[in-house]
């Protein structure tokens, strides 16, 4: 189960004011990776653990539709207050139970949120909703994390993670 922190309205307000947004360069690296491995069109992306939505807004302009989810009603409310993009839908839900159809998503992102999730369950859920050749981007302030998935080599997952990592990207 996702850890239920960052739920209060005061905290959501502070999160909106002080959370560091992903850089344009980092967003472009994610899009380039998706283009290389899946190609256009970019139809649906889901930003899991979206918080107050800073990263969601940056990605939304590149997709026909964007779904942003967070466990916290206060975070979703804050995201709605600051987002006017017509192609974004915000939903309150846990990361391990996404309200999306099987094989429907081009890109799954979790921006500085993956460490809060039940990782095995989230990875299964991401696998369920991703289209064939769809991509997952786990963005964080550090590369100090290891990925694993049943019946899949951890080394392969971590090599993919390193493929787009560059020491010059912050």
Automatic annotation (TrEMBL):
Organism annotation: Pogonophryne albipinna
Domain Methyltransferase type span(s) in chain numbering: 46-137
Molecular function via GO: S-adenosylmethionine-dependent methyltransferase activity
UniProt xrefs under SUPFAM superfamilies: S-adenosyl-L-methionine-dependent methyltransferases
Highest taxon, organism lineage: Eukaryota
Record-given protein name: Methyltransferase type 11 domain-containing protein
